Amino acid sequence: MLVKVLHNGNCSKSNAVLEYLDENGVPFEIINMIDDPLSVLELKTVLKKLNQSVFHIIRKTEKLYMDNFANKNFSEEEWIKILSENPSLIQRPILIKGSVAMLGRPIENVKFFIEK
């Protein structure tokens, strides 16, 4: 089954997952989240497949987060809009296989996800 990878080319962990998939002959499609940000609806779909709230995928160590969003109380809907407009704040990579998804870290979890 084709694995979709929500990817940021500037992320070493995201690049490592692509390398792992390639080396193991896993067919995948790259969705560059930075060049082609997810819409609000697409983000909601990903969150449903992750079975997580939006708070689970926010990169709180990102400078943009620290400068503009830390210590502010946004609702889940507001965060989804913020992430849609600021894709660098989304944890990556996110792997999607059919109706399920997972954060692609650590790499051991990716192996389990692919084999499942």
Provide the descriptors you would attach to this structure in a database record:
Glutaredoxin, four-stranded mixed β-sheet, 5 helices, 16% strand, globular
Written description of the protein model:
- Belongs to the ArsC family.
- It comes from Chryseobacterium soldanellicola.
- Pfam families: ArsC.
- InterPro entries: Arsenate_reductase-like (IPR006660), Thioredoxin-like_sf (IPR036249).
- This protein is of the alpha+beta class and 116 residues long.
- The chain has a single domain (3-115), classed as 3-Layer(aba) Sandwich (Glutaredoxin).
- It is 41% helix and 16% strand.
- It has 5 helices and 4 strands.
- The protein has a 4-stranded mixed sheet, with helices on both faces.
- Strand 1, helix 1 and strand 2 form a beta-alpha-beta unit.
- The protein is globular and about 45 Å long.
- The model has no long low-confidence stretch (mean pLDDT 95).
